[in-house]
Design brief:
two-stranded antiparallel sheet; Arc Repressor Mutant, subunit A; nine-stranded mixed β-sheet; 11 helices; 44% helix; 22% strand; 11 strands; D-Maltodextrin-Binding Protein, domain 2; single chain; alpha/beta
Length: 295
Amino acid sequence: MNTAWLLTFRRVVEARSFTKASDDLFISQPAVSQQVRHLEQFFGAKLIQQAGRELQLTDAGAYVYELAGRVEQEIRSTRERLDALVNGSQRQVTIASFPAPLLHFVPPALRVFWTEHPEIAVKTIVRHHAEITEAVKIGDADLGIQTRHLDSSLEAVPCRNERLICVSSPSHPLARRPTIQPEDLVHERVATFATGIFRNDIDSWFAERGLNLQNLMEVTTLEEIRVAARENLAIGIIHLYGVHQDIAEGTLIHLNLRDFSLARPFYVIHRKDITEPASWVLRALIDVASESLEE
């Protein structure tokens, strides 16, 4: 028996769909169906049956699903032991994330974590959103920081709602106004993300008011937006966590844009069988990331 059949079967059960499982595993749907058939032939029993539009486990399938879980856990544990053997590290936790959290709220969490557990190594890897979920699922990362691509096979722990805000240099004319109107930004140079879910949220917010920003400075990183605003090259639309220190120091002004209240939830994702020391790092991330930056 090929152990890949077991892992594919487990994913079909959790996704409740051959199609979704094939998308998650990056293989064709016929290949997924064939692997499940091979498994059924090996055990000599029907494992999944169609009930209307849904897939349901048979009694035999429930036993095989439990077996698949144990096999997946053993594979993961063996990989971790071999990694420890090769790298000479007994205990290491890997965090997968897009860049911004690794710059802004992972370091404070690690500072707290290492006061209690200095012996634990922590490795961070930068991934795009879909890759973060996959890295956690296959065991390349113990934890992931995610805003989307959540997966029912993983736990997703909310850690904060991250706001987008408008900022400018203190010398910008709009910085002196107690409130600015959405119309005030239409012809101003505005620095923000070139693509992505936050850019989509921004465009939608202005479109709902019949507006379209005409003079965009499109960038790919928080730091570019921050610098453009500080140097008075543009007004910045940016995550609060990226500029809260600048606002506190007075090098950037938080513009009060009327009715602007865009926010996205951030989650820490992990496998359901999380163990120490990954669970310790999870606790530190939740405790620190959930602290308000608006005090």
